[in-house]
């Protein structure tokens, strides 16, 4: 099977190149980038020199790609808005597309416009494009050919919360989420705020109270809870390259129900290769999931407040983007779920 | 005026040595440490070589210190429990003592026992020892000779919250606090969990849901609010040497009262040298306060939830410990508030 | 094929567990550690949770291991001296042993005693144990059953230098080497000098002028040069977890012979998967090899001094230890050289 | 006395603002920057908020500044070439100017042109402008009104070497210097190579074999040695914000003369507040000088090679730039040498 990455110049794109180059079941045959077309991938991503041989970036034209017969699966690592320019013709041509942008993450075009500041570029595709965290979805999405890969923060939040909301163990109202992301979360952005001396030894919030991912978080939590779910989401930047650490405070519906939380997680994630449920009192550490497709989660209960405090960690570029995209491909095409991801 | 630091081997002790060595109005004449007695301060704290000359650590005996006539002010940088062994005789001998431990931070011996796992070592002194964040206290404490210097997390929390609770702008119930500390917050602790390769590129929670500082936070917030105040406090370790970043979610009592928050802060901190109130939407950054005695605070309001999100940053070793202690000395003895702290 | 790691509690041991757990051709069946016996590997090395299943550390007894018929290859990740206690009986029992310690790296027992401060523990095995950097050795070593895996600094030094010395392009006299290692080079050592706040934002030399690896470096360079080779080796610690950056100054034997350097490297490393020769003027970056088994090397010529300045980088735990050990196994047993290493 | 900083938008400029704001004997009355004119210094340099009050950046016009009567001393923190545009009229107008650029560091216009790629912009001033590391100069420079402040790498190199060359203890030929700088050495440069994720956990060389500072290093070492002095200078970037670590290999002229090295240093630096000579075997650590105007130096002797290995560390922004500039001002105007620098 042949794969292409469209728009591979960023950090998620680079991680996709790494994962697909090592994948036993697919061949990475095309890597596109408008700005890098003609250049060797190994020169632009020197960390991957031993993996990419003489592969070069190519320019990309949606219509040509749609007409090509060589490529079986397309990963879109493009900005929102731009992704649709590719997704639409590729979808119409019957290709399989896994989109890492925000374009197909939201069900509501109104919310998209509110949060992304522009009209939705391809509303006619929304129904066709399931939003999938593999551990949380049933198998119906596998028949779709356009799949929305969730955002990094939302993945770190939904993995612990969705099963608990579905089981009715926590109050969907009043959830407070604090997330801390490594600097790669900002992408390969060249701006004064992101140079080394500004971010090193620095911790700060940003984008409060209405970060773009909030739209996706609330939409998904509401689906899980069958109820309104207005959350407080506080993103921050932490002085590390990769990793997201999320700490959630949610009201327990029943007293002393920590066991139920763990039972619910056990049922949801027992046997799943990429979610580790840690004992209460063991706090997940971003360092332990960096470079992996794993999420580590745990919870404590505070009898003084009646709250659960839930912690989760992921690698923002892997389980929060490229690794999850590869996991989706694996599952859709019947490969081992862990193929290329260990 | 002559000053002594008792128990100076840790990071707060080192920072006190730095600050007092440069102070225009006092002379640091003694630095004690049981483990380092006899050694040159400059050899143990090479960063201070140019400041400390040939000062050596001495052993310390509470009774002898109490009997000495040379030293005017004692800073106790000792573990809780041990601090009282010095504070008691020094206090009885009429010395001025600024205690950086937890021994005199709590008004309730019951809470002390609950959180620190031992009976309070000097309950008879509690009444005499005011707990003082200088910006939040009236002047009465200045007549005390034993003063409790607040903890690092509590300082980062009280500075933004206390004026708002006093003004009735936020609901004392349901406050959620997430704090992220640089690794020096753990002190100079030699343990596998604190070696470089374990903490570098790592973010994780710890001590939830009942960190020791919670006792101090709640007691002080309740005083400010004249009401019960059960908070959720989530401490974390961040991969940096110094700094605390605190993010607080608190329910606004009135709609659209962000202006009142800023007015209240302006009234509390206008003209204060060590608190900077940043405009809404400007998020404080630990990097900007590292090495200073400053706290930077700001807030945003979320009309969707009715919450304020309040951010604050301090240097945990300075405004969170040694700098605040020096500020207390400055104010008590009528020096410039900023003396030795710029 | 079944593999065992003896003494797996350190960082090199952890990296070996990672690499062997993912290896397509071997099964990691035993992981020993005196201090961790009985504990789950996944609990002690949480970063590997998804790889190790319910594997536990076991205690290890040299005689029992030698008598066992289950295990085909043993990796010794033990301190020098201790390694021989295992290597000897395992070798006598006809097992294949790859030793990551210093015990079989030196040909001379006198030099071993000089640098390691103790008599060589198993001099009778020295002849049987080849010292192998795979890219620099001919195939004879593959018949050996006890193989010495080179040290991290020496690997970063020999890869660029050995072909040049063999080709007579540089003067074996007067070579000056500066190396900078990430803190994991010190192992999982719990000491005040290695806690986060001491090593973060810190750069310093150590162990000059006679670091233990010097013995190994000189012995190997002399073999390559057929001449005496007294080098200056300056090791340092750099504030990062992993990686070695080495900068070598060597006198060119012929003027304007940079092309010959590159030709020689091309001949030595063309087609080798784990050495990348970068163009002159492109300086290798530790970040680009971290997590890989690759060495990146390049050189510039200074006509003012007649010196080559040669730069190389490796991941100290992979090409400098565990990855090289796995590469040795791959080659000895006829697996793909890159198996488990991409 | 009133001071102005011309071109204060970079990191050295920021450090100058910090130092002069706290200086007891001068008042910082003007801070200029073409790009930031009109903006509050405290908004652009939030770390200095508590120091700068409502000082704003102003635009700067060389002629106007030269005509002004308010300012007594000008610090030029400008790029080379641009600095001369200010230095010339200010000098002609009789002002005191301390220039942190390269414009007046070299005695030879030919070498300037060779290394900086342009004709020297003000050759007529070269004779008037002494190049001064205060610890290494006699007092004659104090009568000059235009003073060249040395570069960061050169300061870390000359402090240990110049006394030894003057004393004839080391061979001026064949000196090999490796230096590692924190990322602030590149200034506040906004480029992909300097964003956090590229520099974090990364170590690499650059600018070999002919970094611009080489010209300054050789010119000064030759003056000290009264002999030709062609050195190999290898600069690198290290993953930290500040600090330079320099390791020098130099041939001893006499056997076993380490004592003479220490005697010579003792004579040169005994009683000097900003140079600490550490015992042989104690290696200086950048962390110990960060935030200070201090240089720490030490040396070992290797009897195997007959070389001294000399280590030095400074804070590149302080002793390597702004601190040294303030020290020059202090000495020229008869203030305490350490005023504002402790």
Describe this structure in words.
The structure is a homotetramer of 342-residue chains. By secondary structure, chain A is of the alpha/beta class. The first copy, chain A, contains 12 helices and 13 strands. A 7-stranded mixed β-sheet of chain A has the order 8-9-7-10-13-12-11. In chain A, α1 crosses α12 and α7 runs parallel beside α9. Chain A is globular and about 60 Å long. Chain A starts with a strand and ends in a 10-residue tail after the last helix. Chains A, B, C, D: It is found in: Cytoplasm. Chains A, B, C, D: Keywords: Amino-acid biosynthesis, Arginine biosynthesis, Cytoplasm, NADP, Oxidoreductase. Chains A, B, C, D: Its EC number is 1.2.1.38.
Predict the CATH topology of the largest domain in chain A.
Dihydrodipicolinate Reductase, domain 2
Question: Which H/E pattern describes the elements of chain A?
Answer: EHEHHEHEHEHEHEHEHEEHEHEEH
Beta-strand content of chain A: 15-25%
Radius of gyration of chain A: 20 Å
CATH architecture of the largest domain in chain A: 2-Layer Sandwich
Catalytic activity (chains A, B, C, D): N-acetyl-L-glutamate 5-semialdehyde + phosphate + NADP(+) = N-acetyl-L-glutamyl 5-phosphate + NADPH + H(+)
GO molecular function (chains A, B, C, D): N-acetyl-gamma-glutamyl-phosphate reductase activity
Family (chains A, B, C, D): Belongs to the NAGSA dehydrogenase family. Type 1 subfamily.
Pfam families (chains A, B, C, D): Semialdhyde_dh (PF01118), Semialdhyde_dhC_1 (PF22698)
């Amino acid at each position: 099977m042949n794969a292409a990455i469209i728009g591979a110049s960023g950090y998620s794109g680079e991680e996709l190149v790494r994962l697909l180059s090592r994948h036993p079941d697919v061949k990475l045959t095309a890597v596109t980038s408008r700005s890098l077309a003609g250049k060797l991938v190994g020169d632009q991503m020197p960390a991957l020199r031993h993996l990419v041989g003489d592969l070069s970036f190519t320019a990309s034209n949606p219509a040509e790609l749609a007409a090509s017969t060589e490529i079986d699966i397309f990963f879109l690592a493009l900005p929102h808005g731009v992704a649709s320019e590719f997704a639409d013709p590729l979808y119409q041509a019957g290709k399989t597309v896994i989109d890492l942008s925000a374009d197909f993450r939201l069900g509501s075009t109104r919310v998209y416009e509110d949060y992304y500041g522009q009209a939705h570029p391809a509303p006619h595709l929304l129904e066709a494009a399931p939003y999938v965290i593999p551990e949380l979805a049933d198998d119906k999405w596998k028949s779709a050919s356009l799949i929305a890969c969730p955002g990094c923060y939302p993945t770190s939040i939904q993995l612990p919360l969705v099963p608990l909301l579905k089981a009715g163990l926590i109050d969907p109202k009043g959830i407070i989420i604090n997330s801390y992301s490594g600097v790669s979360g900002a992408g390969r952005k060249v701006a004064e705020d992101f140079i080394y001396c500004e971010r090193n030894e620095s911790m700060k919030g940003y984008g409060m109270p209405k970060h773009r991912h909030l739209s996706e978080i609330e939409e998904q939590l509401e689906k899980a809870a069958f109820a309104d779910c207005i959350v407080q989401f506080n993103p921050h930047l932490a002085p590390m390259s990769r990793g997201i650490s999320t700490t959630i405070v949610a009201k327990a519906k029943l007293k002393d129900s920590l066991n139920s939380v763990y039972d619910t997680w056990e049922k949801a994630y027992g046997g799943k290769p990429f979610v580790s449920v840690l004992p209460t009192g063991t706090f997940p550490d971003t360092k332990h999931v960096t470079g992996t497709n794993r999420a580590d989660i745990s919870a404590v209960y505070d009898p003084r407040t009646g709250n659960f405090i839930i912690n989760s960690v992921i690698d923002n570029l892997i389980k929060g983007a490229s690794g999850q995209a590869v996991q989706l491909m694996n599952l859709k095409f019947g490969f081992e779920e862990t193929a290329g991801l260990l």
